[in-house]
Structures
1.
Amino acid sequence: MMSRKTSEKDVRKVSVLGSTGSIGCSTLDIILRNPSLYRVEVLTAHKSVELLANQARRTQARLAVIGDKEKYAELKELLSGTETKVSAGRQALVEAAQYPVEWTMAAIVGAAGLEPTLAAVKQGSVVALANKECLVCAGKFFLDEVAKSGTTLLPVDSEHNAIFQVLDIEQRDTVKKLILTASGGPFWNTSIDSLRLVTPERAVAHPNWNMGAKISVDSATMMNKGLELIEAHYLFDMNEDMIDIVIHPESIIHSLVSYIDGSVLAQLGSPDMRTPIAYALGWPNRILSPSPTLNLAELGKLTFFEPDNRRFPLINLAREAIRVGGNASVIINASNEVAVKSFLDRRNCFLDIFKIVSRTLDKIKTRKIKCLEDVFDADEEARHVALDVAKLCEEG
Ligand code: NAD
Ligand code: MG
């Protein structure tokens, strides 16, 4: 890890990939509250052209990129009369991620974030990683690129950011367990029968966190914790049996590290992503964040429960994917993306998500990952198979 002391007068050049999403907007919120510390160079989005143009105007970004080529003319028009350059398409996203900056927020959702984030990594600055799919899909390959380019990777996912804050890297061999907390989402104590009737509206209404639709559904199925387990496995180089998961519905303790002397260190805070984002933006210093101050007396008590693997089998499937290795985690990630989309589009029911992911993994022969192409191939194959499985579930 790089140790770089910034003085108050340093202005850091930053890019925000996926700036119109939940994490992207929170990142810009903190940046705009600390105008003397940051200068926005690049902003990117997929389709939200108006929001992207507004953000570019407010931050006076040098470059705004829209993934959807059909929105290019609209973006150009919305930003006419400004200094902001405009481009569009997948390749433009990758080029934008290579723009020379000192700090990049990688907050594109899903496997679509892999290529742009890798481009940011190769550019060799500090990459704040919100997109968990990079590690889930490309794990070792991604970390090798980080090492090769001398990039500093800072975890933004609240659990991994918490562990990053309390893990004593110098004494890694004294770590007994990592303990990831999970809110459990809106249905952690809902019966299987009621789970059958869950609608997209109820699934995206997370009790504590305000997040994008995909991760909110992942939180409701607990696939999010499965993906985070894989993320933690790679980030902290821990076997899956060294990583425990505990349900903590209040989302106040964001994760813990248990040491061999019996000490358990935790990071606490209000459930507001602006805290881990501010940590990554300020690192190695701390900066002001507007997150509400935690009031423990007002909270009164914190509660913890064992996850129910019978109702939420995707956590164990993620453990299996780690043990199998190779492209198994690419397969579960891609099939989950298909299943979540199909559920949000009301083609499949909530419980189908579990079936689609596990049946897709069963149907595909797992292979080693030797290069990035292997990741894309596995991703594509899994999406095809998952679509077929989803159709069968829909009909059945
Ligand atoms: P979101 O859906 O709110 O936003 C996603 C962003 O990515 C948007 O700017 C969108 O325009 C862009 N995007 C979507 N598809 C794209 C594509 N195909 N190509 C290029 N850009 C595309 O998502 P989010 O909730 O902000 O999550 C972003 C990432 O951060 C995810 O990987 C998620 O797992 C992770 N994360 C989110 C939270 C949270 O609280 N929201 C917490 C931890 C981790
Ligand atoms: Mg998380």
2.
Amino acid sequence: MRIEEDLKLDFKDVLIRPKRSTLSSRKEVDIKRDFVFKWSGRTFNGTPIVAANMDGVGTMAMAKAFAKHGEGLSAALTKHYSVDELAAFFKTKDAHNAWYSLGTTKADADKLKAVLKKADKNILTKLCIDVANGYSEAFVSYVKMMRDTFPKMTIMAGNVVTHEMVEELLLSGADVVKVGIGPGSVCTTRKMTGVGYPQLSAIIECADAAHGLGGLVCADGGCTVPGDLAKAFGAGADFVMLGGMLAGHDQSECEITQQNGQKFVTFYGMSSKTAMTKHSGGVAEYRASEGKTVHVKYRGDVKATLQDILGGIRSACTYVGARKLKELSKRTTFIRVTQQINNVFGES
Ligand code: 5GP
């Protein structure tokens, strides 16, 4: 047994120090990024925010809303659409910024091949290979196999939280490594297993490792307010993935329920009992559920939420004098705090 003594931080433990700036308005801030992916060689131009591949978030309706919004956000589609639905979607212009998500079973690989036979290969160009625990040798081999099979595909893979696994995945063919174990809004991994890593420190350490190798990271999980995205980008995240912050909208493709005149949408973790019952006929005996089911307030069209999030990030950039999102991490000094938000009138 060993104890690491240096303090690891979460979003709530820091604020961004304001800096003198020549910017006069947030309109002057460019929050799009340009990337050339390390392995696929493909380019990305857009706002690097990704809807998580979760039911109620990574939907085709969300991808369409993002396309309409025009800022180049992208959605990682849930893996529970049928081959035909996916093949049809990946022929449309709305899918240009969508990620095709898959796990690591043979069935997942077979399904991808079936979709690729019918989809437009110039549109289905981005894969999100997603497992709860990215630390297994088998996962690394799977990423290698996918890289060998699909040399021109952009591959995002995860999740991990430490530099050595970021390096291993990047060297095995990932273009983007997804970072986050346990911070999610409907995740119970830390409670059930005691395993995890404070998300801000995970981003800082993983981004540093990835950038050294010409790779990128996607900070996944734990953002609860727009300021958390600014902190994630400030910490060095290239992409930020959102689940809970995008749940509860018209684009969730799920049922809206009413209770005492208030409208709700059910939202759940992808390894919750709800998800396992829905998609795999129940919780396997050897597996504990590591996700929860919650009811989130129905919030209408996602457009207003996006405006809030993007407005927050633009404003953060003006506070530190970053004309482009790319400059935000260079301009960021975090200060450690004991309180960040004044909740005297409630949390909203
Ligand atoms: P959020 O933005 O809601 O805080 O976090 C979203 C992320 O939580 C997802 O992208 C995914 O990595 C993670 N996640 C989703 N469902 C589950 C689950 O059931 N269990 C765990 N441990 N993590 C989950």
